[in-house]
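Tutorial, part two.
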Amino acid sequence: MKKIIFISFLFLSSNFAQQNISIGFRDEIGFGYSKINNKQFSNLAIIPINLYLVVNYNISDNHTLQFRPGYYIGKYDFNGWDIGGYWNYYFSDSKIFTSLGYFVHFNNDNAGGNSGGVGNTIGFTASGIGYKFSKKVNLDISYNIPLKRKYGTFALEGKHYANFISNLIKIGVTIYLSD
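Running the prediction step on this input gives:
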């Protein structure tokens, strides 16, 4: 294990890695569609602030890998830490890119009002499209599908119902600290 850490440190500290890695911050507006008891009381939640650190590794002019740890500040019953990996493909001589990824949401075990989050882990697949305004600013939209749908409970008139998430649509702005 020490050898792996040492080799990783050497790689990341080399000039090659420094020229190909950029770090930034990301804010996402999330639109989540959920259902209670998988059919009753459907609702759309708009979550305006979700903050992430972005580590971007440029493989080539057209391909990048991203690592995104952050916090999804959603509804009181759907919020918690996210960690994900993404592959971006930039079309030749274009500022438009596509994105494919996978992230894990660690839902908080909390309650508010008649709803409560279940402290579980939910994996999501993500695909999207974006636009690179400059070397420092990207804007993208992604469609995210949960691999497990139950995220919380809802109490109504003494009965408890399960909350299910159908999908998330995220609009994100990434601002890089360096070129």
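The longest helix spans residues 2-13. In part three we will examine how such features are distributed along the chain.
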